[in-house]
TrEMBL record:
Keyword DNA-binding applies: yes
Source organism per UniProt: Rahnella aquatilis (strain ATCC 33071 / DSM 4594 / JCM 1683 / NBRC 105701 / NCIMB 13365 / CIP 78.65)
InterPro entries for this protein: HTH_LacI, LacI/GalR-like_sensor, Lambda_DNA-bd_dom_sf, Peripla_BP_I
Taxon lineage: Bacteria, Pseudomonadati, Pseudomonadota, Gammaproteobacteria, Enterobacterales
Name of the protein this chain belongs to: Transcriptional regulator
Top-rank taxon, per record: Bacteria
Keyword presence, Transcription regulation: yes
Domain HTH lacI-type: 7-43
Length: 360
């Protein structure tokens, strides 16, 4: 009966026992690869897999490729939490998860090929790996592969990422809605995903009839840490001419970057949000910065792992399905680091106000 889960029929056609067929279809790991392949091939021919619950993960081994820092919570909490999300999503399956550290760009292709050709590597998750050569190799090898927070320009993989572009637009739009028009964004643009976020920010400027200038509105840092952001903002502040208005709001690319921004402002005698508002696009790592509750757009993080496994399940059940890119939306959390613009601009002289049209 086509489309019906008829275990007896599959057992008859494969010559396997009913218990073996049941174990395979339940995703159990105590079956041979030969038996699993035979059952899945028969089930596909009957259309059975199209009706199975996506709760079944029909493989026993997954390999995660990610930058080395992703495996250390102190080095990259974002990717560390993504991987924890993957582990949580596979916890109720009988799946072994293995890891391999790999550079984001110019990755070790020989190492990748060695890991991919290992018979225990049945499926692959590429977390934060931007190297197009690695993407190409993964596609050529034909094993189920899902990209997490990276971009496949050749459209040969399923992928899941935060919707960076929309979140950049949304965060900046929130500042405009609070009356801020002189906005500076502090970003680290070493990854394509962050370039997407900047694109969204520029879209918000255009929609509010503002001209975005890289020289005036963008501070591009070398990293995502507080120290780089603090130094970049201090240099920006010190380069302003006397009496030149400061930004009324700063949009930081992450919580630690926001921490550096607040530290730089404090060193120059400005308060948050009294003089200058600060918003982050992260919102998980630092709920407060120097006792200031941080307004932020939460970037999906833990959810990425669960969605990556769902895409992998879909690929296992429907190997010929079109490749898809899934974008996860963020969520605005309003705290106290942003306030409505007063209409009066703070200048580079601490605690003085500049009125562009003074009373006469």
């Amino acid at each position: 009966m086509k489309g019906k889960l008829n275990i007896q029929q599959i057992a008859d056609q494969t010559g396997l026992s009913i218990s073996t067929v049941s174990r395979v279809l339940a995703g159990k790991n105590n079956t041979s690869s030969k038996a699993r392949d035979a059952v899945l091939e028969c089930a596909k021919a009957q259309g059975v897999l199209n009706e199975l619950s996506t709760g079944r993960l029909m493989l026993n081994n997954i390999m995660i490729f990610a930058p080395a820092r992703a495996f250390d919570v102190r080095s990259d909490i974002f990717y560390y939490k993504v991987i924890q999300g993957i582990l949580a999503a596979t916890a109720h399956h009988e799946v072994r998860v293995r890891y391999c550290a790999m550079e984001e760009e110019n990755a070790d292709a020989a190492l990748f090929i060695a890991k991919m050709t290992d018979p225990q590597t049945e499926a692959v998750l590429l977390v934060g790996i931007d190297d197009p050569h690695i993407h190409q190799l993964a596609a050529d090898m034909g094993k189920p592969c899902v990209l997490v927070n990276c971009h496949d320009r050749h459209m040969r993989h399923d992928s899941v990422s935060p919707d960076h572009q929309t979140m950049g637009d949304f965060a900046c739009d929130y500042l405009f809605s609070q009356g801020h028009t002189h906005i500076v964004t502090v970003q680290c643009l070493r990854r394509h995903t962050m370039e997407l976020r900047l694109t969204g920010i520029k879209q918000a400027f255009t929609r509010h009839h503002q001209v975005f200038s890289d020289n005036q509105h963008l501070l591009n840092t070398s990293g995502f840490g507080a120290q780089e952001s603090e130094q970049a903002l201090l240099e920006f502040l010190d380069a302003l001419a006397p009496g030149q208005p400061l930004p009324t709001a700063i949009l930081a690319g992450g919580d630690f970057m926001a921490s550096g921004v607040v530290a730089a402002l404090a060193k120059r005698g400005f308060s948050v949000p009294g003089d200058i508002s600060v918003i982050s696009t992260d919102g998980f790592n630092l709920a407060e910065i120097h006792d200031v509750p941080l307004t932020a757009v939460h970037v999906p993080r833990d959810e990425l792992g669960a969605e990556a496994i769902s895409l992998l399940q879909r690929r296992m059940l429907r190997p010929d399905a079109p490749y898809t890119t899934q974008l996860l939306q963020g969520k605005l959390v309003v705290r106290e680091s942003v306030r409505k613009a007063s209409g009066r601009a703070v200048t580079c002289h601490p605690h003085t106000l500049y009125d562009p049209q003074p009373d006469r």
